[in-house]
Amino acid sequence: MVIATALYRGSHLVAGGSVVAQHQRDRLFPWLALSAAIASTALIWFMAARHRRLVTWAVGLDVLVIGCLLPFGAYAWGGARTQESIAWVMLLGGSASAMAAVAFGARLLAVAVALLVATHLTGYLMADADAAVTGAHLNALVFSAVVSWVLTWYLCRQGEQVDSANRRALAAEAQRARFAERVAHHNALHDTVLATLTAIARGGVDANTSMMRERCAREAAYLRRLVEEADDREQASEVRAALEESVRAAEALGLRVTARYHEPPAVPGEIALAMAQATTEALNNVRCHAGTGHAFLTAAGDSGRLIVTVVDRGRGFDAGAVGPGEAGRPAGPGGGVGSAGPRGGPDEAGRPARQATGGIGLDRSVYARMRGVGGRAFVDSAPGEGVRVELRWPG
What we know:
Strand order of the largest sheet: 1-2-3-5-4
Largest sheet: 5 strands, mixed
């Protein structure tokens, strides 16, 4: 409607300019009046461009100055004493009423239209215009406002319906995602916890064996993570599901993992997969080299960035002792993952350092995989302080 009323006023300015250039070019006031109308229009559309809507005070100023005062000025100082000479000034009132219908509420619009009708009726009576001309102009003045108001109401109503339909679609999609997640959790519980409890209840296994105790501990950790998940899990369920597979794989090999998910953002499926694969390698390094059976995993979001950290409290190593040429040699008793710069920075050649006990594996499984999807990996360690691996996407 902003564009439509701009075109409407533009057509009136073109008509007014044509009349002034052909019949009133020798008078100063018509040119001043046309300049005032152009300036008022420019102000309205400048404010509309800034606020993305017609600003009430700018349109109100146009109604008062261009719609109500300009006809009297044209009559008094512009020599517009006939209906032909004053008609182009009156024409601007139609676009003023149309803009008022878009910018004003119902009560203010009624006041604006009443003022315009009274002013233009008085102006045509002073110019001794025909009743048919006066009636046709006033009819156009009123219906410019009516048509603009109806179109504005209709477009706003259609926009509300579209917004409502989008909200319903998003709610339905969220409900489907929650249902799918419940089904996935049900299946996982059926295949793990319920299967274990059923076997113990039937007496088919000895619940006191170390293997069964380890299995119960893993499944208790899995249940604990399900309980502690955030309420918004449908937004990033793919990330959580991929990381959970990495955690369960590590736990199946005997590593205890404490996982926390703090509103990780939704990311494309290939990013979630790459993150999970890099996490799997980081957990494998803890299991094989850190000298501890416990790791901590955290997945969180920060301004649209997905950050996954894997931390252990194992032996650690001297990160500064691992140079580019020593990638394949142990970095002290901890083994683990390292980097050439202090506290896990990149090496002097700009490349991240490799895993101390298997540099090619870490390069390919963590650093290269993260670089391949536009992410980055960082490693921080010191002797006796464990290892911290941080995965970021985007890098």
